[in-house]
Design a protein that fits this description.
There is one protein chain. By secondary structure, the chain is an alpha+beta fold. The protein has a single domain, classed as Glutaredoxin. 30% of the residues lie in helices and 30% in strands. It is built from 6 helices and 9 strands; from the N terminus they run E-E-H-E-H-H-E-H-E-H-E-E-E-E-H. Strands 2-1-5-4-3-8-9 form a 7-stranded mixed β-sheet. The longest helix has 13 residues. It is globular. The two termini are 25 Å apart. This is Glutathione-dependent peroxiredoxin.
């Protein structure tokens, strides 16, 4: 499992881009997570699924609401990562009003999630392989903090925790 001091794994993830620019076309655009984090401070939070109750009501909205504070404290970017496709993540970002605040990153085949070792088996619930709920602060591609939730919990991976760690 990924731990503090490890480099972010190299894996292709996707982002649904609404406006063409900076070499990105409209629609899903793939990029290497490790390469994209290089030279930046990135606040990453992952969750089991888009449009799911805790993820939609608490986890993602907390980061959207705290985006300015996180950036003021030193985060260059904020990523929301889930094992969903880029179209679903794009629709969810639109619904939550995340544009310009949080990048909603799709790990459709769970390549990044598997590489981190932070998988969650929800096959019995009809959701397949997903990501555990966690947050981490990545500085120049290296994990500086990692907050992994116990199954079914939302206690340590919220925006307030990561903001305090970023300021600390």
């Amino acid at each position: 499992m990924l731990k503090i001091g490890d480099k972010l794994p190299s894996a292709t993830v996707q982002e649904y881009v609404e406006v063409e620019g900076d070499g990105c076309s409209i629609g899903p655009n793939g990029f290497d997570a490790a390469a994209q984090a290089a030279g930046k401070t990135v606040a990453i939070f992952a969750l089991p699924g888009a449009f799911t109750p805790t993820c939609s009501a608490q986890h993602a909205p907390g980061y959207i609401q705290q985006a300015d504070a996180l950036k003021a404290a030193g985060a260059d970017e904020i990523w929301c990562l889930s094992v969903n496709d880029a179209f679903v993540m794009g629709a969810w970002a639109r619904e939550l009003g995340a544009g310009g605040k949080v990048r909603f990153i799709a790990d459709g085949s769970a390549d990044f999630t598997r590489a981190t070792g932070l998988t969650l088996d929800l096959q019995a619930r009809g959701m397949g392989l997903r990501s555990q709920r966690y947050s981490m602060l990545v500085v120049d591609g290296v994990v500086k903090t990692l907050n992994v939730e116990a199954p079914g919990k939302f206690e340590v991976s919220g925006a307030d925790t990561l903001l305090a760690q970023l300021k600390g």
